[in-house]
Design a protein that fits this description.
The protein is an alpha/beta fold. It contains 4 helices and 4 strands. Strands 2-1-3-4 form a 4-stranded parallel sheet. The longest helix has 16 residues.
């Protein structure tokens, strides 16, 4: 099972995207699941290395450089989520799923 973590400002929109994308993967019979946390927890989460991929939401791109550096230190990819992959509609969920599959 591959695991990805969305790091977001407050965690509400990211939690919805994580659930919808995980459901999408289940429907496709793919063993990938997503979870979500707030940016204040991001550094510790990346250092913990429990996920295969860390995704930075559009509203938290100001943390991208720092989180990418930490990801490099622990050997984990950190990727910025484009706006069009962060919309809880089928097109956005498919783009999020493709982003995850490309990077895990």
């Amino acid at each position: 099972m591959k695991k990805a973590l969305i790091i977001c400002a407050a965690g509400m929109s990211s939690s919805m995207m994580a659930k919808k994308t995980t459901d999408y993967f289940k429907a496709q019979n793919k063993a990938i699941e997503l979870d979500a946390i707030t940016a204040t927890e991001g550094e510790d989460a990346i250092r913990g290395g429990q996920f295969d991929l860390y995704l930075i939401s559009p509203q938290t791109t100001m943390y991208l450089d720092n989180f990418t550096k930490i990801g490099e230190e622990v050997g984990k990819p950190v990727v910025s989520i484009p706006f069009d992959a962060y919309i809880p509609i089928p097109m956005g969920i498919e783009k999020m799923a493709k982003l995850v599959e490309t990077n895990v």
